[in-house]
Amino acid sequence: MIPINSLTLRYGIGCFETLKVSADGHVFFLDEHLERLAFGAQICKLSIPAFDELKQQVLDFCAKNYKPMLRVLRIVLTMEDGVTCFIEDYFENTNPLKLQIAIDWRIDSESPLNAFKSFNYLKNHLAWMQAHNDGFDDAVLLNEKKHIVESSRSNLFFQDANGAWCTPVLESGCLPGIVRGHLIKHLKAHETIIFEADLASFVSCLATNSLIEARNVGLIDNYRFEELDLSEIKSCLKALSKT
Fold it and tell me: Which of 41, 102, 177, 230 could disulfide-link to 127, CB 3.0 to 4.6 Å?
């Protein structure tokens, strides 16, 4: 139990990772997630087990809690409890997402917290809540320069009429997502600055993270996008997660 007056709750000191576990028990991109968790621990000045020890701890936890279905694994690091794992059933939704550009919340493009998943996710959650209240699935966050950064829970990729892909540059303030890194290579995506007005020039949009992998975005405010067949992308990510 974390005390109510702890630094964890008062200042949001802590970090976490969210991972997908397949029906056969495979944990997607485990090594890369643990590396990012270790980086977050360094920034937050938190102690964390050595990589091999931590990896075995996570694998043992997953084996002990195995179920033959898709699951979501969360690895949480706090100063009080160290590393704690949670796992629950995951039901995949493949319907195109409807996103709303957040008006009240901005990402600080120069914050070191953008490089990992810290407990400081309040602006993301409040933006997500507002979008849900307005009938959308998620919110698109801009930075202080009004560059498109990411959704509250996913990185974003855009395809133009010529088939070329792009994604917001890291310097915009987006999370260096695990799936994002792999899809930049697979799609030969260009990292660039993207403004809201640029959305009119794109024909397709994807939201990506380690849980959904890749999911079509059908709408951002009044901008509409075509739905793509994502089977090849998902097959590629599945293969990469096992290398």
Answer: 102
What span, in angstroms and rounded, lies between the C-alpha atoms of 204 and 23? Answer: 30
Burial of 236 (0-12, 13-18, 19+ CB in 10 A): middle
Q: What is the pLDDT of residues 183-198, one digit of tens each?
A: 999 999 999 999 999 9
Per-residue pLDDT of 78-128, as tens digits, reads: 999 999 999 999 999 999 999 999 999 999 999 999 999 999 999 999 999
Low-confidence ranges of the chain (pLDDT < 50): none
d(CA 25, CA 87): 12
Q: Which of 183, 93, 173 minimizes the C-alpha distance to 140?
A: 173
Which residues neighbour 195 within 8 Å (Cβ) at sequence distance 6 or greater?
146, 147, 148
Q: Which two tokens stand for residue 236?
A: 């590629």
Residues 188, 141 contacting (CB under 8 angstroms): no
